[in-house]
């Protein structure tokens, strides 16, 4: 693991130091498992109290904390943001060599940048384009006419169906499948006739897609994920869905076909969205919400069926009182019978 001085870290984070600026830092760890030489971080009083009595040598802080144990403090504007910025210093990502593994199968018409890495057992189809710094870790299958922008990273066993287009710096984790057929059928003389899915999937810059995600290609046109959006594991995004920029889609969410999700939307775990909906910018959907209506921008909805959060909360409070109300009704009925 690389070694840095406290001043190196502070300079990287545009922070200031209270204590020994020449202190050598060899790792980063949470307070309860930190050892001498480690940097830890604290974003509130409780975290700082634990960090200050830990074995860590330095603490990353945002507030005007003072160490009672003489630890070096690296002061920054936002401790959690700084935490995300400093981790790559101590835990750099692996570097993959340029070129391709002998077991990779690359079509003659594919355009592979010399700086790309194509790992073992990858298949790169006809007319595929791989940009500078692309990494295919292994077992990846890229169908014909896929485009993969610079610095994209595909973890093992990711599959891109034909004509899938990735922007720059897209990360797709193991087992995800991008561009499989949308679930489109029409009832014809008592049988479900398949509607051919001839569109594509377009993933814009700086999107991260978790493990075992499926994003279906459009019937016509494109299924689109906007710039900077982050998608957790085990999410299903159906054909012709559009997700805007910088949205968060948490694990086990399902979005049905042709729904349009705005920018900076948060969809919490296990929420389900019906098809052909319009979800406005900066909407927040609580976990396990069942969404069946359009939602204007800026609103918070929860429940199944989902409603504005204040409405659902009032209903939940009323349900808590239901047993007592039922008991009182039963008593009134008994009293009525006894007096008649």
Structure, described:
The protein is α/β, with parallel strands linked by helices. It folds into two domains: 4-90, 3-Layer(aba) Sandwich (Udp-n-acetylmuramoylalanyl-d-glutamate--2,6- Diaminopimelate Ligase, Chain: A, domain 1); 99-308, Hexapeptide repeat proteins (UDP N-Acetylglucosamine Acyltransferase, domain 1, 3 Solenoid). Helices cover 17% and strands 29% of the residues. The protein is built from four helices and 40 strands. The protein has a twelve-stranded mixed beta sheet. Strands 9-12-15-18-21-26-29-32-35-38 form a ten-stranded parallel beta sheet, with no helix packed on it.
| CATH H-tier superfamily of the largest domain | Hexapeptide repeat proteins
Strand order of the largest sheet: 8-11-14-17-20-25-28-31-34-37-39-40
Q: Determine the number of helices (DSSP H or I, runs of at least 4 residues).
A: 4
Number of domains as seen in the coordinates: 2
Content of β-strand = 25-35%
Give the number of DSSP strands. Answer: 40
CATH architecture of the largest domain: 3 Solenoid
What structural category do the secondary elements indicate?
alpha/beta
CATH class of the largest domain: Mainly Beta
Distance between the termini: 86 Å
The 3D shape can be described as flat
